[in-house]
Amino acid sequence: MTEPPRHVLSIAAQCRLLSISRSCEYCAPVPQSKETLALMRMINTTFLDWPWYGSRHLAEHLQRAGQEVGRR
Prior knowledge:
Helix content: 40-55%
Number of domains: 2
Distance between the termini: 34 Å
Strand content: under 5%
Order of helices and strands: HHHH
Number of helices: 4
């Protein structure tokens, strides 16, 4: 959406108008590893089954399922 020099507005001004962080403009997204995606899937599934679980219960559940995770 933002364009370099040929526009009158600076990138900072364009980012302000779009309400996005200027650092987002310069950072390319980093793809997630397969392990991270699998863990995220497990977290989502667990949360959908037990939405009242907090971070402690969720971490305990994942540890019982064999994942090496912490609360954070």
